[in-house]
Amino acid sequence: MEATLKTFDVCLKAVNDADSAQGLLDAVEDLAELKDERAIDPLIQVLGFNNPGAAVAAVEGLIQIGIPAVSPILETLDGYNYGARAWAIRALAGIGDPRGQRLLLNAAANDFSLSVRRAAARGLGAIRWHEIQETERDGAMERSQTILLQVTQDEEWVVRYAAIVGLEALALKLNDREKICHSLCQLKEKDPTAAVQARAQWALEKIEHER
Q: Is the pLDDT of residue 4 over 60?
């Protein structure tokens, strides 16, 4: 216990004392590797720094910590700091907690950053559906499906690709896959980007295999 405490304190001090971008990145990576719940708040703070590398490391650390990080992320979302909010959305997408679904729905449909829309779209298909009460689960899955089908028309091909990934994951949890399969067929045949067409074909094959 003493060794763990010391390791955490050393890592935290390194984050606070970092005097360069690379130094901060290295310190955040070390802190994230601990997978220690005490690191949640410091990692969230890093999301607001002007250091993309450190933010990526902080997001990965929060994802590895998982469910315990969700409430602190939601409670500290900053509507005025777009950068921090965007990184937080990526962390929520990676964790998959149902409490983050509302934010992911809005981000996938409306965020101006294609990387945020992409992360949110993938996250909407990877929500931990079993953690939602059975009486509310169908409605939650329907909301994800509606937005993901909408996002298949996004102007950026990487976002459409992510929507396919999300739809595939969602379809494997649904009994009625007709709307998703229809959309994937349309993408396979008509999307202007070959990578999107191929991913849609692959998704259809995986869904069919699971029937």
A: no
